[in-house]
Write a structure and sequence with these properties.
By secondary structure, this protein is α+β, with helices and mostly antiparallel strands. It contains 25 helices and 17 strands. The protein is 40% helix and 13% strand. The chain has a 6-stranded mixed β-sheet with strand order 2-1-6-3-4-5.
Length: 615
Amino acid sequence: MAWAGKLLRVNLTKGKCKSEPLNMDWANEYLGQRGLATKYLAEEIDAKVDPLSADNKLIMATGPLTGTSASTGGRYSVITKGELTGAIACSNSGGFFGNEMKNAGWDMIIFEGKSKKPVYLYLQDNNAELIDAGEFWGASCWDTEDGIKAKHGDQFIRVASIGVSGEKGVKYACIINDMDRAAGRSGVGTVMGSKNLKAVAIRGTIGVSVKDSETFASAVSAGKQVLADNPVTGQGLPTYGTQVLMNVINEVGALPTRNHKDVQFEGAHDISGEAMHEPRKSDGKPNLVSNAACFACTIACQRVSSIDRTHYTVVERPEYHKASGGLEYEAAWSLGAATGVNDLDALTFANFLCNEHGIDPITFGATLAAAMEMYETGVIDDKITGGIKLNFGSAEALTTTVELTCKAEGFGAELGLGSKRLCEKYGKPELSMGVKGQEFPAYDGRGIQGIGLAYATSNRGACHLRGYTIASEVLGIPEKTDPLETDGKAGLVKAFQDATAAFDSAGICIFTSFAWTLEDVAPQLDAACDGAWSTERLLEIGERIWNLERQFNLDAGFTGKDDTLPKRLLKDAANSGPAKGKVAGISKMLPEYYELRGWSKHGVPTKETRARFGI
């Protein structure tokens, strides 16, 4: 079967590693990765625990398709109680780390307690040990990965690590693997740092088996053909990456600009996927060097970029003269449109720093945008910013503050709080653009109504990847719905949320869902795993996962009152584009959503719903 059938429990307090059999009853109910790890977390910690307490746990988990030949089957997730939000956190990453973990023979690693000193876990197939990480404490993610590989004399080791930001408690520190792939949101790297865990290094040679290899190969081949034939996964994403969306969303009138004051950015083309292909005026070379792919991925949406050697941001930093992970849409938006900056090299440089030091560029850019608005309205001044002029559109402000934030120095330490805490500190909580303490991604809920509801109800705080209604409302996948209408959006959001939970838990990338439905996933799981796996079963599992996450948050202290959007989106109408005059219609959609979920009018799963899913 595709599960390895065991997990590694790492007690950091005692410095002990122990193998345990995987709870297969839970695996059959929650599948793997996001769902199964959430079940373990909910069973093993108090939902009210301080995220940075030794009593919180951090789980790295794969899915049953991770490490197989299924397209994009290289995913893993990090699950914990998030420091940024205080809610359930599940951050999904690609690259090659997940495959290495599964090939080493492990479905999951559970970290508990706190080490007395910095350590890293070295896992070589069945052998696990905690090693002193003192020599890497204070190092960047890039230097840590290079250093661990050199120390063990093996360039095939896969490393996931935190930077100084995670060590110093930046609220949205992430975990970086393979240099530029990230478990990026909700502060999972902050939790890792609080445990004095610098890195996880894995070398796996055991391999992954499936139930019926011949049937599995046939199902995988059919799935890959569907991806190749689809215009998004077969053409758009390989050519432009997620950056294909920049101009599209701007034209729709849903590109949040200057801290959501505007919904269209006049500089959108300058930072778009198309612009990444265009020769620079300075040296005639394009920003984009090539595309790249994660393990087993046939889409290859990853960007590899370079920066003009003469650009002011990098002239003294030779390490950034080489090509590295380029801009994805969400990062380009947050570092660019959100702050009003249209300097592509500056955005790329800032993104490199986020990768190198391990911070979430979405939250960073959104937090900087909120700070810029407070600066321009006189709420904060040069004394507070350390003399940095935080004007919208300032590339210098962007590149200066990102480096400070990565190291938690100067005003960067304040930006490291995230926009909710920062805006509350200076008496302007309404300027934080997020839900449940997590900042919005790159879509405005006034111009795309369904995504507004998805943000408001997302269990990990504002997130597009928990129910990507953009596929339907903008791209027409699987069918076109009007982005300006609220009717029918409750059902649309629920359907996307449940299906996404199943995709995440299987161990595959959510980008496959541009072409695949669960009807494409079910045959692959059915051939890989013991038992009978159908579309209906996967939808039920997705809904069970969603309700378990919801219950965790309720137990943590969240209520239905947290299922809302900032006043700016509810009261201030969009000022341009197709959505001009529109506000987010959450009040119309939320009651229907609760009813479809089987929740009370206050957003609490009923006894019948909990009984149905065994929660």
